[in-house]
Amino acid sequence: MDFERFRVKPGDRVLDMGCGAGRHAFELYRRGAHVVAFDRDAEELSGVEKMFGAMRMDGEAPEDATAETVQGDALDMPFPDDHFDSIIASEVLEHIPDDMRAMRELMRVLRPGGRLAVTVPSWLPERVCWALSEDYHTAPGGHVRIYTRAELEAKLKSVGFRVGGHHHAHGLHSPYWWIKCAVGVNNDDHPLAKAYHRLLVWDIMKRPLATRLAEQALNPLIGKSVVVYLAKPAAPATPAAPAEETADAV
């Protein structure tokens, strides 16, 4: 996510739909939002809840910000219509067989004028992963489709969203997943996979200029994820009453 493009104000109600381990939810909390981290995996949510508590104790979020976890199904979310100011759905739609129904739920719970950010695996890196490993995409809970950006945007537009731009991210991560698929997606002890993983952890922690520049160059070519920014159209203005009706009311 680029939070310069997807700005979140203190006090905004923000949903992290399919939050996983909570990376985006934690950043939203730091920025002062009222965050709901939503996922179907109770174990993942337990870890997110513990991190929210640690952040509160350490003063990592503004005092008036709130954060909670909610377990549920993306196809039938337990939230009222027009409830959230912003929603993030990161690396989740590719897991859902009925993705159109999930998109309609996102439209339902987002307020008119609200913003949505969706990320999914980019087409080319994902095609390579599928070609290298059947386990990568056939494991329970795995990816059920490969999106092109055009298909993703078309589906989101068909349920009413307006597209507002895109970019690619995590260009350094694609080679790691290609290595994992080549040596076995569950083979975490393979020397090459372990070495590349250490590189990624070092890059995330240190963010050196050299790897930042390398990733900027690689993102448009082999960025592991594509990020699409969208908006729900604002509610139409209430038409003015005819002059004669106004006069009668007076």
TrEMBL record:
Keywords: Methyltransferase, Transferase. Pfam families: Methyltransf_11. InterPro entries: Erg6_SMT_methyltransf, Methyltransf_11, SAM-dependent_MTases_sf. The keyword Electron transport does not apply. The keyword Methyltransferase applies. Gene3D superfamilies: Vaccinia Virus protein VP39. SUPFAM superfamilies: S-adenosyl-L-methionine-dependent methyltransferases. Residues 15-117 form the Methyltransferase type domain. One of its GO terms (molecular function) is S-adenosylmethionine-dependent methyltransferase activity. CDD domains: AdoMet_MTases. GO terms for biological process: methylation. This is Methyltransferase family protein. It comes from Actinomadura hallensis.
